[in-house]
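Fold it.
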Amino acid sequence: MDLDAVRTFVAAADAGQFQQAAADLAVTQQAVSKRVAGLEKELGVRLFTRTARGARLTIDGQAFLPHARDLLRSEERAAASVRPGRRALRVDVIGRRLAPAALLRDFHRAHPGTELDVVTLFDAEAAVEAVRAGTIDASFRAVTQPGRRLPHGVVAERVHNEPVQLLTGPAHEFAGAGQVAPADLAGRRIWMPGIVPGTEWAAYYADLGDAFGITVDRIGPHFGLEPLLDVIADSAALATFVGDGTRLVWPADHGLRRIDMRGPTPVYPHSLVWHADNPHPALAALLSHLRAAWPSRRGTGIWTPDWVQPPAVGVAS
């Protein structure tokens, strides 16, 4: 149904005259007559009876009027639901315990009136495609894996360097260390059974292991975070890597240690990925917030793989 014709019908019904309806809608009287005639043809009934004083609703017109008003209200609600700033900003944070979720929580604390829809997509490929397709507004990802480019119109900007820490049990040889150098871990086994081949984080940790001679072992079933922590807590040989922004909770008797790495510090490079044509005002506010915090998070003496996007705005061709 032509909603312009419905809107014209309601205006004419309210005004009682086609001429006044034309003035209210800023169209010609001929346009009003044509729209009403087209609507009458579509419905198969007469909506108005012409009188000396203007136009009077027929019985069918009176029956249709409240439904016509409902149609126009529905149209307005539908448009408002996607109007920039009226819907929640939809952001992918990879995992709700990871650093991007903390970055988004910081933003929400600074902008408590901003409505957010937080999602967790599997890998960078799925996230970038969702940004391209418009099913999400933004995603925090490491950009990009070797040989992979962003689609046209999708942009990315490095917004956070997250230091990687060594996590050990109390009996591990480095449990009492204040810090360790990545080279000190050469030949040691770092157990990360949750790594999925082909993902950006798998590429990152593979390169980290190659760069410093570290054995990053993903062998074995992954039963989840808590069972992994149980194994690490009881082992004198196994350790794992975690980001310093990853939220971990374990029983007090586990005695787990989070140990900083220095000389250099491996950092996981989080970029925000979004579409250049996205007009959502909350997206601009999120970018502004992340950029304001970025200088304090750059750091010196850091290591990232060669394929990681440099800390500057990047636009794919």
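The radius of gyration is 30 Å.
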